[in-house]
């Protein structure tokens, strides 16, 4: 085996290790601890550094990569959240690698994980452990599938559906499309995630239209995508500011997004905005003191845009906007479609920052590849 084959094998091993680490960390069934977690990260970082030292890269790209990676590490350490670091390591690992090989590998592993988790948690529910996997929220009986939350299960299923659509883009058969519809329905029945259902249905619509090579659709996405991220960020910022005053538009948006604007407004009025990343104890613990004004006992950032304004740092809005602009210049239509879904997904979740929970950020590796 020559040196190149060894490097490729190590990159693939590091990629799989990161994937397993992310899924195990969000699992209720797999025994996991901080030692195993740190060991996986350390191995992947060592392989990443070994690969980067062996790459020949244009100086400007190398400098941009170094600055963004260093700031991502600074961000993760300040917030004590490391999803973004996992994504940066994964993107660096995939520089000059063939995504047509790695994304099917990721889909296969995640599909096995999901099937095993749903089967085992379903069996354990029948054997008397239903309270671990089922709970009622807002009169909805929800199933977490053996993961930390039903929204995590929904996120993994949506990501797998998207990866399959990416692999089979414009080559989907009617039978495969039918299976995607069935998976969307089953996913909703298990997780009862309304936002996941809406995004899945929108994905199916776009994929269906893209199958017919709609040039108007291509032009529309190419025109809208570069502006969509800052527009959504501005809209969420205004909504969270106006929510407390009882603004009707903010209240309607809050209802549509299942109280996400209320959570964003709470964080904004309690902590304000920040240009740089910071640690927020109530966001980390998920617990807040009840007050009649907010009527909240728990808290989580369920919207990427509010998370950027309040905790991750507004400077990231600029960084992500620039990355999307560059991607729009270099990506083909297929990859623009899935980048569009990442921007949309940010309205309802922050899981998109972790490429192993929601895959489109892996596509950014192409911006640094020679291919």
Rg: 21 Å
Count of extended strands: 2
Give the end-to-end Cα distance, rounded to a whole number of Å. 24 Å
Q: How much helical structure, as a percent, in the residues? A: 55-70%
Unreliable stretches covering 5 or more consecutive residues: none
Biggest sheet architecture: 2 strands, antiparallel
User: What is the mean predicted local confidence, pLDDT?
Assistant: 91
Order of helices and strands: HHHHHEEHHHHHHHHHH
Shape field: globular
Oligomer: single chain
Q: Strand order within the widest sheet?
A: 1-2
Strand content: under 5%
Structural class: mainly alpha
| Number of helices, where a helix is a run of at least 4 consecutive DSSP H or I residues | 15
Structure characterization notes:
The chain is mostly helical and 371 residues long. It has helices at 3-25, 34-53, 59-79, 83-93, 99-133, 150-167, 174-191, 194-211, 215-242, 248-256, 260-271, 281-285, 304-312, 315-330, 333-345, and strands at residues 134-137, 140-143. The longest helix has 35 residues, at 99-133. The model has no long low-confidence stretch (mean pLDDT 91).
Protein traits:
single chain, 371 residues, mainly alpha, 15 helices, 2 strands, globular
Briefly summarize what is shown.
This protein has 371 residues and is an all-alpha fold. The chain has helices at residues 3-25, 34-53, 59-79, 83-93, 99-133, 150-167, 174-191, 194-211, 215-242, 248-256, 260-271, 281-285, 304-312, 315-330, 333-345, and strands at residues 134-137, 140-143.
